[in-house]
Each structure stands twice: as structure tokens, then as C-alpha cells.
Amino acid sequence: MIEGLNHVTVIAEDYERTLAFYTQLVGLELGHRPDLGFPGAWLYAGGRAIVHLYADRPVPAQRAGVIDHIAFTARNLAQVKARFDAAGTPYELRRQAGAGTWQLFCHDPNGARVELDFDPGETA
To answer: Which residue range is the domain that position 91 belongs to?
Structure first.
């Protein structure tokens, strides 16, 4: 029986830009990663490694494959927006019909579509 999603792995075409995107903009934390014999990083949220970055793999020709996007539950919408605005990183902000959840859509430096979901009670 499935208990949850363990992690997502991103092949970083530009490792430093990708690391900065997920830590400085999205807000994940760089954390412990065992020596796996190749370069990369594990990024944490809530004490769990949820995004793994590969720093030594070629990006596949078909970048997105069948996965449309990665979605994270987030908070502090105003602060996150301010970080994206200060970095000049484009995004689309909208409210989910019905539930009112704030959804911030953007792309990481490798072209992966990322969604950040915020509580409807937050203000933009």
C-alpha cells in the first residue's frame, strides 16, 4: 500500500542555478546526503529529503516526459512572491476554482514546471 510520495529527482543541467532555484526561491533546505559516488544534493522540507538533484547526468532529449509538474504545499505567499519578483523569475499566480487555493506556477532552470500551493486564507 502506498503511504505517500518519497521524493522527486531532478537532472540539473545547470547545477548551481538549479540548487539556487530550489533553495533560495522555493525555500527547500540543503541537507545531509550520503556519499553516493556521484555529485548532487538532497533538498529537505519538514525534515524529509523530498527533492534529489543530479549534477552529473545529461538532460534527456524529451525533458518533461509524461510528468506535467511537481507541486509543493507552501506558506507565506507574500514572502515567496517577493523572492521571485526580486530574482526576476517569471511566475503565474492564480486561485483554484472552488477551493480558493493560491497556486504559483513557474519553471525551474531545467524547464520542469513547479507549482506552489498556498492556503486560501493567505493574501497575495
So the answer is: 8-58+68-118
